[in-house]
């Protein structure tokens, strides 16, 4: 009877959260801040905590997949709610979202299973969590909250994420998001690293920079990805500010990859958002490393291609 009741609760939870998520996906970005006023973030976090506790206690792998399904929906919904919404990111952090991320990541990283369904579900869950954490990292006044040793360590490890059974697209998204979060944090400079009022970070600033570069240099520029940017401004911010070259390497790789794989959609976006001038400036900088210049050149060839129109494809 208990097993049946849990199945019913999980199914109802997935259906409800999925419906909320679909409604948020259809909400204009400019209106998403209203979602934060409806206590939806707090409610979704509560559902996620409940699903996480049940996932930890589930004795059977079949149940683990179902609880993971509910966690997937909650984190996907939170990812959408916080997209380019600083106020909603604040609510997530203030309501214990970072602690929930760390607890969920720890459990996911310790799962050992031969069940492909469970393995794939956990990878997709980590992808969704990192997508949300990427939104948090784009908000400058919140970034110092990420300077906690356990959280930074998780991003540092996930920049080289590699698991059996996994979807290649999910793997590159996890690596990309983890390195991107570190790049945003490092773009604020080493002073922030050493003066954080939160828990000290054992990894040094220079170690993390080296780790970003080492990871990005191993990624294939033709990697297929499922991410759907509405604007390049969060990436271009790193090219606009004075920050170390490994941070810029991540940003330029992101632009090059997207413009190579989906030029009709992303080349017009690059032009519209001022990315061409920034790439030209970087490419002409004599101090710029060769690996970044190579990527800049590839992207600029696309940017100046007259056969790629100016309309952004949806």
Brief digest:
The chain has 314 residues and is an all-alpha fold.
Structural features, described:
The chain is mainly alpha-helical and 314 residues long. It has helices at 2-25, 33-36, 40-57, 61-82, 86-94, 97-110, 116-137, 149-158, 168-186, 190-195, 205-216, 233-240, 245-261, 263-272, 275-283, 290-303. The termini are far apart. The model has no long low-confidence stretch (mean pLDDT 86).
Properties at a glance:
mainly alpha, 16 helices, 314 residues, globular
Can you lay out the helices and strands and say which pair or pack?
Blueprint: H1 2-25, H2 33-36, H3 40-57, H4 61-82, H5 86-94, H6 97-110, H7 116-137, H8 149-158, H9 168-186, H10 190-195, H11 205-216, H12 233-240, H13 245-261, H14 263-272, H15 275-283, H16 290-303
Helix pairs in contact: 1-4, 3-4, 3-6, 4-7, 7-9, 8-9, 9-11, 9-13, 11-13, 12-13, 13-14, 13-16, 15-16
């Amino acid at each position: 009877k208990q097993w049946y009741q849990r199945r019913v609760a999980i199914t109802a939870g997935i259906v409800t959260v999925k419906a909320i998520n679909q409604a948020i996906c259809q909400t204009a970005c400019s209106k998403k801040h209203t979602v934060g006023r409806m206590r939806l973030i707090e409610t979704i976090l509560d559902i996620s905590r409940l699903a996480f506790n049940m996932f930890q206690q589930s004795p059977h792998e079949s149940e683990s997949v179902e609880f993971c399904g509910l966690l997937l929906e909650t984190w996907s919904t939170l990812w959408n709610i916080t997209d380019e919404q600083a106020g909603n990111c604040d609510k997530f952090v203030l309501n214990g979202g970072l602690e929930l991320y760390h607890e969920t990541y720890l459990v996911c990283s310790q799962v050992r299973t031969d069940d492909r369904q469970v393995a794939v579900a956990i990878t997709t869950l980590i992808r969704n969590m990192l997508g949300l954490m990427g939104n948090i990292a784009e908000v400058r006044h919140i970034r110092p909250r990420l300077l906690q040793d356990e959280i930074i360590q998780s991003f540092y490890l996930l920049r080289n994420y590699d698991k059996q059974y996994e979807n290649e697209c999910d793997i590159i998204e996890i690596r990309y998001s983890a390195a991107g979060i570190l790049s945003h944090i490092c773009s604020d400079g080493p002073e922030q690293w050493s003066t954080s009022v939160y828990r000290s970070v054992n990894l040094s600033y220079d170690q993390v920079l080296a780790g970003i570069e080492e990871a990005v240099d191993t990624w294939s520029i033709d990697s297929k990805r499922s991410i759907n940017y509405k604007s390049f401004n969060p990436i271009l911010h790193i090219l606009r500010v004075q920050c170390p070259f490994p941070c810029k390497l991540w940003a330029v790789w992101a632009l090059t990859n997207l413009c190579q794989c989906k030029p009709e959609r992303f080349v017009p976006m690059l032009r519209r958002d001022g990315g061409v001038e920034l790439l030209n400036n970087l490419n002409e900088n004599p101090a710029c490393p060769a690996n970044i210049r190579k990527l800049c050149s590839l992207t600029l060839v696309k940017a100046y291609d007259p056969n790629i129109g100016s309309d952004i494809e949806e």
